[in-house]
Amino acid sequence: MGADSSAAAAASGSEIYLPDGDLLDLEPYEGMEFESEEASKAFYNSYARRVGFSTRVSSSRRSRRDGAIIQRQFVCAKEGFRNHNEKRTKDREIKRPRMITRVGCKASLSVKMQDSGQWVVSGFVREHNHELVPPDQVHCLRSHRQISGSAKTLIDTLQAAGMGPRRIMSALIKEYGGISKVGFTEVDCRNYMRNNRQRSMEGDIQLLIDYLRQKNSENPNFFYAVQCEDDQFTGNVLWADPKARSDFAYFGDTVTFDTTYRSNRYRLPFAPITGVNHHGQPVLFGCAFIMSETEASFVWLFNTWLTAVSGHHPVSITTDHDVVLRSAVMQVFPETRHRFCKWHIFKKCQEKLSHVFLKHPTFEVDFHKCVNLTESVEEFESCWFSLVDRYELRDHDWLQAIYSDRKQWVPVYLRDTFFAEMSITQRSDSMNSYFDGYINASTNLQHFFKLYEKALESRNEKEVRADYDTMNTSPALKTPSPMEKQASELYTRKLFSRFQEELFETLTFMASKVDDGDEDRITYQVSKFGEDNKPYYVKFNVLKMRAACSCQMFEFSGLLCRHILAVFRVTNVLTLPSHYILRRWTRNARSSVVIEESSADVYTNYLESQTVRYNTLRHEAFRFVDEAMKSSADSYDVALTALKEAAKEVLNAAKNDGRSSAFSNGRNKVASAGDKGTEKFSSGTRVRISGQTLSEVSTILRFPVTSSFTMHQL
């Protein structure tokens, strides 16, 4: 497309693309004179705006006499080709390659200085080798993106009122009558505001450093650090008080790095590092002020924070959806599972797809269902493509980008990792909530310290109150289950309430064997009564007392799901195995005291030894009965006789050892029958169940000795 046709097309459009003054309809020509080099540059840029391209300075020549510039060449921004510097790229991977913008365009304007001091056009190339930009997009070109003085004044005023770049741009578009008349983009507005913030913070940041230095002098365990590059302060500061460092030792398995200040327009570039305590409350692990948001700055911040918390890497970390943060996390936490905050992505979705939300009121619900309610990777993939096709969004760039990153924010891909959340669909309380109600868009540094300390006091008081309630009150039990009583004595009140909900729901679920696998590993299908089309699958190792559910709730939250508990119910697992009780969720989570042997009798011997022995005997009895019922009536008679003989021997052994089983404190204690759980006889396998008569054996096993195994009830 030639320059003449482009200019004509532009002239028929909006007048704002035409330069003011006597040069309105002129294009450059050889011999044209200007008062200065800057005047010639401004004219060529105005011409480029009318035609539809961006300009830059290409080359210059200086006087040998005094070194002054005597010749300049201005070119189309697409002039030349990208210079691939092999020395810069051969030893390092380019993580975010830039788009190709130079295509060898020859369009240019050359000017040189006359002896009179005037500048004259010595050469002009009109033709371009690429399409030119239409008038409604010309404001996106780099050389034409300029924030005017009046626009700066309005931005300053609105920023002081706590408004963010997106709302400010909306106000500017309304004020000027369209985005093309504003003359710059939201990115320019955001950069201008960030520079404003940095300039205003430079003087105040010393207040923060003085505050941290005082805290460190009062308590040497108060950690803080400032980042410097080439002996220059970058404005990045990190600190962690003694409680934060201590809390990380107990609850540092999952971490959230909260950069909400970037999206919520905080005046302060304040980023807390948080987690979740044993009451499910947000807990603080450290704080940072971030003036420079480069990859190197985040790498410094993470490494320095690791120093503060003794170098222990968390199992998982949650951050905002950001490529720079992702790169920094990969460098510092290579073995840590990195998740993007789903709720930030949902919020961004409302902004990026606002036109879809307005046109299709059902889209938001469908989008949430697709992300939160799909049970498998295959179901999510199918639902996603159905969604983007239904709303004609398959080619939407932002949706394509978040789909590419789906393994880092969609729950179905993350359930195998611990994030300390009680539900796949809940919002983590630690994300963007620790300082809610204290630090907001209007907070400045002078007020920050007092509000920061108030927030810490409030959070500490809430934890103390939760500790008091846990230790001094008892929850109401809903069932006679020994497991419920056991959990009520171990978990904090908040966590017990969540566990109790799962346990109680097992009453509406059915579990049935679908695959015996080998002798010790059985697969169960678990589904809610009347909802057989939504089954979950639990693989249960009877001897090791380990179960894995397809919902992966335990892996994700650290609490057993209703599906595994339903399998425990039908297999007579009466108490929680110790490996399913995470210390970080118990009332003793902060205790550093090693459990003595007497205490171990309660926790280890009771939970592991007694439960495992009981279930081993039960498992062998099931196998014995199943085999007997598969054979003839003679085999049945042999099996029944063997059981009676076994019961007599067990009873005699119990009398000799002075032991018997009893119910004590709501727990069913089954004594050991010795080192051997079974004893071989010519007629088959005799099962030893200490201290029980034959009728008691059938009661414990929850089936009559004359029938095969089906299902058991509590």
Automatic annotation (TrEMBL):
PANTHER family: PROTEIN FAR1-RELATED SEQUENCE 10-RELATED, PROTEIN FAR1-RELATED SEQUENCE 5. Putative transcription activator involved in regulating light control of development. It comes from Linum tenue. The keyword Nucleus applies. It is found in: Nucleus. Its main location: nucleus. Coiled coil: none annotated. This is Protein FAR1-RELATED SEQUENCE. Keywords: Metal-binding, Nucleus, Zinc, Zinc-finger. It comes from the Eukaryota. Residues 662-684 are annotated as: Disordered.
